[in-house]
Amino acid sequence: MKIPPVKGMRDFYPADMAVRNWMIDGWKRISLRNGFEEYDGPIFEYLKMFQIKSGGEIVEQLFSLKDRGGRELAIRPEITPTLARMINQQISSLPRPIKWFSVPRLCRAERPQRGRLREFFQWNVDIIGVDDVLADAETIFCALDYLQEVGLTPNDIVVKISSRKMLAAILESIGIPQGELEPLYAVLDKRSRLPQEAFEEILAKQVGDENKRNKIMKLMAVESIEQISSLLELSKTAQESVDELGRLFELLDIMGVGDYCVFDIGIVRGLAYYTGIVYEIYDKGSELRAIGGGGRYDDLLKQFGGPDIPATGFGIGDCILGILLEEKGLVKKQLPIRQPDYFVATTDKQLFQKAIEIMTKLRRAGLAANFDYKSTNLSKQLKQASAQKAQKCIIIGEEFNNNQLVVKDMATGEQKLVDINKFFAELKPQSK
Amino acid sequence: MKIPPVKGMRDFYPADMAVRNWMIDGWKRISLRNGFEEYDGPIFEYLKMFQIKSGGEIVEQLFSLKDRGGRELAIRPEITPTLARMINQQISSLPRPIKWFSVPRLCRAERPQRGRLREFFQWNVDIIGVDDVLADAETIFCALDYLQEVGLTPNDIVVKISSRKMLAAILESIGIPQGELEPLYAVLDKRSRLPQEAFEEILAKQVGDENKRNKIMKLMAVESIEQISSLLELSKTAQESVDELGRLFELLDIMGVGDYCVFDIGIVRGLAYYTGIVYEIYDKGSELRAIGGGGRYDDLLKQFGGPDIPATGFGIGDCILGILLEEKGLVKKQLPIRQPDYFVATTDKQLFQKAIEIMTKLRRAGLAANFDYKSTNLSKQLKQASAQKAQKCIIIGEEFNNNQLVVKDMATGEQKLVDINKFFAELKPQSK
Fold first, then answer.
1. In the CATH scheme, what architecture does the domain B342-426 have?
2. A49 contacts B373? CB cut-off 8 A
3. Quick check: B60 pLDDT over 90?
């Protein structure tokens, strides 16, 4: 009986797994040096947890299931609700600020397409307990610390930044009631992905008043923070959030990543929980969807039954980023090559037992060592050693009767005789 | 709205995550040095895939779900069926032997109890394409290479080994029809976990004939391979598998792990797909369930629609092993301590900007660097540095006007003035 894989899910054969590991190891290393600690939650949570505040698109894409008691569960489509739950559970004992990261496996029941799969890995970095825009700057820096590290320059990618707080203040001053902001965000979030006409059509459905609509269209066309002030008189809240945006760009300059960052009022974000700075990271050259994005979500912990604590963070998935890094040739260039330290070969079936003994001793000493199960003829074994990119080959032959091994350097071809006791005494202890 | 976590699922707070990472990193390192390559599959597969050959207990414990097209899926309760599917898909292009490992996240709808959770991680190591018992020995060695590495001695753990092929041959010679072997295995597998009476009861249900039953009871009471031959006359197949078991123990001796291994005819394994050598690893001292187990499953790939290829491997979960390592004090002893390289402090709010600049430069250079968001007074910052176990503290004070930094060694308390340009010029490049 032949059973196919489920569509939109990935099999990671060793070559694919090497790429996934390389990417995730990089995320982890960069997170740690930026002072973040790793956490993780369960693969599924109660269904209702994702229905609270994740936004319509994500809720539609949930894989839901039931446990034996009939309780409704869902495979996590994002980790932020889990983060909020976990923080709330231990809020009194966690020293603040809380700087955490995670690399969750997530599932969304999307229609599979290029860069959009039903299962993916997402790098999440969050700072809980700091309301200063410095925390937003630090998370953006952390994302760019990684992206820069793997070779993406300001010519390749851009971080587009705006502020939901500013947008809310301006939309309110235009006359949009607070209760209508959330559905309007969902509309504005689609603007860059739709033709102008289609966008105007859905906007008209959301905002009936033509005058208001025109003001919104003008607002969404501004290209700099300065333009906003000249376009309309700003309320106190709007001015504060404009100033905050200004300070964010200043901080990003000080951090040395300013040339990756631009203001873009079109960045609204689909998720319902954002409250302040919002941003998305894009590939400059292509038609790809956002590489990642994030922002401030100061109300989420409270909405999950916790105290009123500010929070900010981002998520970067592995699919779009993987495509981009492949396209730029950056994976091939940086993927570590696996090279076993030793291949143990024998010239004689009688010595096979010795080969096994030596191979396992090498492994116990922390070295990667391989062998040929069949101990076929020597040239076949050497071919195998070379196919496996072994650095050295130990040949156990008649010299073994004098307690000697032949050690062959596979790069230079150089061979030398080594006393077996001396060989093991001199093995460098491998770092763990 | 406060939503609880799902019962039997784990939250990994940073302290828990550190333990999980330490364990999994060890599994990966040991697998690689034993010549295995990492793979992974999707978190769910078609439901029917797990119904083919996994055995009743696992099928009952499936978390099943449906996709939007109504197709029946299940979260993977084990990875071997996925492995069989993946190998079959690329069988013609994969060089053999295939030596693969994986650390899948798995879910089973069990009643949560100590060491038995609904979600866990399992180290899986498999060799496909070698029918020689040497491959069984190598996988057992690999498991012990790890267990020995983390400090478990033959006084702590034991690998109990038997052979399903031998058991099948003997049971057939006792007069059990081949078609009744599989349900009988399930009964025999429960023997060590049941009181003698309860076991005899379920055995009587499975085997009606008292004479056969008595022979089975006698067989299950043998304590050595030699005893079997004296108990009854062995068929050719039975003799072959007895010899094979003998050779396995010889190989394990050569590999230096013989003192961890014993013959135990009670090891049958619950899964339906085993065909040859089977084994389970136990804690000697406690009442814990098996740490892990495995064996040969030569027919599985064929049953999954592939060619006839021999295979052998094991799985070790993180729950029981974690409890054992904690009990023995081996986690605390070995868990790596995180120490940021630098904490950047300022004596003056005016210099805060410089602190951010220097901190981000350190991170870009590959060093872990932290700071205080509020740049409160110096002694508070130094306290924070020490709470975070920072190795060094950079203090930016009035010396900064002469381009100098104060670098304080947090262990010795020693402070020195360093020219800022010299400091960055001399930073050691960090290995990735």
1. 3-Layer(aba) Sandwich (3.40)
2. no
3. no
